[in-house]
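Board notes (copied after class):
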Amino acid sequence: MDISSSSSTSCFKFALEYIGRLHRTALAFHYGISNLKMEVRLLQSFELYLTKCRRRRNHETWLEQDEEEKDVTSSRIQGLIIRRMQDLEFVCSEYLTHSRSSDWTHIQREVTRFREAIKLFFETDIYEPCINFLLDCYWLRDPELVIDFIDSVSENLAEIDESHFKRLDEKLIFLKSFIRFAMLRGVEGQQLIDLLIHTEVVAIKALRLASKWWSDSSGYNHETKLQISRLISEKINPGDPKVQETYIHVLTASKLSISSDTSALEKSKQPVADFMDFLVQNTAELLQPCTSTPVPIMNQMLKIVEGLRFLTILLRHQEKFKELCHEMKNLIGIVACDAAIVIFSLSVNQIEEGLAKETDLDLFHLLKVIKLMRAEFTQVYPLTSVSGFGFPRICELGSMDFLLRNLKELARTDEINGSNVFPVDKIQTIQEDFEFLRSFLVKIKEQRNQNEKLQAFWSRVMEVAYKAELVIDWTLVGDGYEYFLDDVARDINVIKIEAQEIYDSIRYVGETTKGVTKTFTRMPSQVTIATYNEDLVPLDDEVKTITDSLTRGGSRQLDVVSIVGMPGLGKTTLANIVYNSPSVILHFNILAWCTVSQPYSMHNMLVQILGSIESEKLEQYRKVDEHDLAVKLKQVLLRNKYLLVLDDLWDAKAWNLLARSLPDDANGSRILITSRLQNLSLQFKPDSKVHPLRRLTDEESWKLLQKKLFGKEDCPPRLSQVASQIAKSCRGLPLTVVLVAGILANTAEDCWEEVTKSLTSSIVLDDEYCMKTLELSYSHLPDDLKPCILYFGAFQEDKNVPVRRLFWLWISEGFVRKTEGMRLEDVADDYLKDLVDRSLVMVSEQRTMGSVKACRVHDLVHEFCVKKAKEENFLHVLHSWNDHTGPNNLLRVCNRSVRNLRIWELVLEFPNVRSLLLFKEDDLGFWLPKLLRVLDLGELDFGAYFPMEVFLLAHLRYLALRTTKVNFIPAAIGNLSRLQTFLLRRNDIDCLLPKTICNIKTLRHLWTTNPYIGFIFPVENLEVSPVLDHLDTLSLTIDPSSQSLQKILTKLPNIRRLRCKMRKSREEPTRICDRILVFDCLNQLESLTLPFFDEYGFKFPLNLKKLTLIHNEQPWSEISKIGKLPNLEVLKLLEHSSGEEWEMQEGEFPNLRVLKLRALWEFRSWIASSDNFPRLEKLIVHDCHQLEAVPSCLGESPTLEMIEVKLCRESVSSSVKQIQQEQIDMGNEVLKISIEHCVDARSSSEEEEVSNPSETESIPSQESN
């Protein structure tokens, strides 16, 4: 193509395509080419406006030369592109013809010239007076031309990765939707012209600001940001009187001009829906800064938002929209106009100080109309239809208990006191009736499986219970379902009569029928928790074979070793053992692990690999794009001998995606693959080594079963024969062995024969056999544990599940029964231990005290959970954006992998959803199911905006969301009177809580995932605020110069886990008492973390078990006071400065089990005696560069199990080895030591250079057989 003779449109098209190809090729300076592409697009947008705009009628007397000047500017833009593109083409062709080297200098120089020419053109030809002249004398006028121009400008703004431009882009799109809405509503004449001119002015100014941004070489232009903010506040937001007048004139004309014909709306619903979306955004922006809004006004505004969301969803749902009557369809457009007039008329001051009477009446009328529309929709699509009711079929008695607890709480709350809708006597009657029915269900529980009549009755009772719960919950959120209460009462009476008839017709027998299912009762956990890495595969020969394949002989080229076999054989466990073996660690410079699974993404795989190499940068890598991650991985691995494990690989595509980032330096690097597919690796590496993993022999199965059941003890002779037979029945599958061991551990010995019969009752394939064993394990679980194990189906496969979050979710879901004398979290912990003992759950991470930090399930167990949860109508896992199959009354939905999820459609299909768990950056719509109890918004980042819509979720118990710049929580959070857990992810500034937080009496956990920020309690009038009796866990930020801490702590009498950081104070504390922080009033406190309290003293409660001090400067004398705490079990001193010498006093730390010292910069000498640390089990010393030695007296400690030393002097390493030898001499062969990167500072740089950078010396003592 000859660019010199091309038209304006084709000229830009050719230039952008050519630069795009160059961008994909010239990776060495792709940033400069990317910027050039953007700058050419900016010129294209300006040129578009110049060629399309026409002189206004009132400026027809302007000289002809003005018109010519506009055309000349347009021609100069085109000429600039043509000249510079010809030069760039020439340089590129010269490079291809003559050089073909890696030297891109000439091309890079030409790209720079091109960019400088564009910058100069912006400065000389498209400057402020030029823009003002164009706006004064010309316009596009045609609505479609204005919309095209907005699209062109928006394309430029979207490419600028800066929040101010993102916001400006959103505002431009709002104006575009406003124009389309006005056109659809039939607006013509001066009102439409005013809106078009206004929009043109905003768009051309936005384009000018974008050009200024790109021409700024520093990449940061504070003045441009200020101009953007001014443009939005003065020309787009309706706060400015002139802007408000323009908008309201258009909206008034929209109401008057439209006819009753709805055909236009039916054909073009999208503009109306888009416009209402932006109305919701504008309302949210208006409410966001309101910190003292009266609750009634805030609730009215939130209901407007919720109503607009509802109407937007109706418009976008083709089938539901068709079902609406003619009047309803016409009313939608009118409601949009009325809502916009109200919203555009409001200001922050009006909302906070009280609405004008006229506005208040308009708001009341609008809400009434929306409520009527929702009632009409309910008739079209009844939300509580019981026909074909698909309620969950597990733990029904637990669900009944949950309903009864809620009824008791409801009868006591202010929500129904004096209510005509909910008279207390009616609620109490329903409660008493269900208590009777529950006691009856307990009586028939054991017989129902053998009696169809009893089973049918049981199902009807549960159906009525679920219906009653729905009706009550819908009524509480104000959606007009109170008339269903009488239906519920009638249903209950019918069920009670039937129960009496059944009672009279059957004879209850005291003892139950014998059978294996009757003997499985819950038992306290007696087994030590097995970790995920425990050696459960007794195949020493297999370990040696794989290890030798990786480390001995073979090609110097990058090679692949595969472990293949059916699920349940232990492929991952075997790979993990090899990966962590000392010989493999010493052989490779870099080790990395990636769990691929299904589905997979390139980005996720790269993050996993880089994160396993540099764990401290994991969060940083999550934010990097895929291309840069691939480049980074190649750089990290280059010239290093590395081992990469790809666990659970399913197809060659995943390998092909990664292969380009895996360098082959002929140094013996290896890839270890685990897969179910026998020949997978041969598809991409025909000469690779494939290792089929064999099954266990009968003897190995028997040994593994004994190990799981009896530990180091022998199997009792009375059980030997049956247990041996059971081991043989497991077909050599390790997973089946450990699952069966979990069954037997909770089964009476006289029923083991029944287990044998269950395992051998039918002939199935091996993979089906594993599933059958899982079904058997599941059927023998206590009812309370069934929903707990199935809940793992909601989490991502092969991912660790944080245990605290799991417990909080279980509790919020109502799975955890209240037990006398125990906290719910402790009961949940017992549940988890039970599942671990049954080998259904694996411990993947442990805390310093040995408790579980994270867990996971085997991929087969996960597959079973997903399948079983769907069968039982317990949980629906979305697999695609239109995956809406399932019963209408589905209660739990999770999305683990679907992008661009259309939640609004899901809400219409599943209106009664109680739990919504998201793991991706989903676009919610954003309309939430009103009955939600659990809402986890995953990685959806709200930035500085708090989603106000959640405050309408009256039943919410668990809320987790991600923000970055939220600095206060709106007062409307007080609406969430049932909230138990509020988890704030990733926020990077402290967050002020409202006074209403103390009204949430159910609150148990207020936590932030960022360890360096916390919640700020309002201290004004705190004395008269309610006490938060149930608060268990808190991330707190305080100002220690005031008495705020003591005021706050008196409101938290039962706190167990506290992270407390200091807020920067404007005043320096002047009195000594200001330097003492008192925590000893917290009699239940067990765990306390204190970051950034330099030179402060503390008073701790005697019951404290765990203490972490970070970035503090307490002297060792203060640490000695801590040593007097009688119950302290864990002490962590991190990034601490206490002085050079720690001389311990007699009797310090009598019950300490774990001591961690990290980055104690001045710490040189450590003096201790034999009566210090009498119960110490684990010592961790990291980054203590001055420390000379670990006290030798630790060698006398009989309880010591582990010493871990990293980045310390060589003398520290020697002292630790000496302690191990002393322990061995004393007969203690349990002690293990781990030494890493311990080299004296005086070592030569040459020695450091040749030392293995990843070498870890692991010296376990020999264990007795």
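Comment from the instructor: Residues 64-99 form the longest helix (36 residues). The radius of gyration is 35 Å.
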